[in-house]
Amino acid sequence: MVAGNERYCEAHQEQVRSYDQQRGTAAERGYDSKWRKAREGYLRKHPLCTYCFQRGYLAAATVVDHIIPHRGDKQLFWDRDNWQPLCKQCHDTKTAKEDGGFGNGS
């Protein structure tokens, strides 16, 4: 059972903490000030969510997604041909499908 504002039950909270520790911080994964600047410029040029647009909807893109997950590969991370604009909902759905949910360890 989930208590209060917790997202996960007690049984899964430790698994989530362990996964987050193995992942490293956002800055350690490359999402630093240089990335934030690049992201902002990309979203100015590509303001609509690609997935929503393909389905006939107009939604603001708020996330720059790596089409092929970079998994720490800096060349793939910075390859703009590997970027696409997505709304948060589409990005979260795509990421969950790719990773198989939290705790995957991939």
UniProtKB/TrEMBL annotation:
- Please give the start and end residues of each transmembrane region: none
- Quote any Pfam family the record assigns: HNH
Q: Which residues are the signal sequence here?
A: none
- Report keywords, A-Z: Endonuclease, Hydrolase, Nuclease
What one GO molecular function would you report for this record?
Answer: endonuclease activity
In terms of superkingdom, the source organism counts as Bacteria
**Domain HNH nuclease, residue spans:** 37-92
Assigned protein family: Belongs to the HNH nuclease family.
Give the protein name, as stated in the record: Putative HNH nuclease YajD
Q: Which taxonomic lineage does the organism of this UniProt entry have?
A: Bacteria, Bacillati, Bacillota, Bacilli, Bacillales
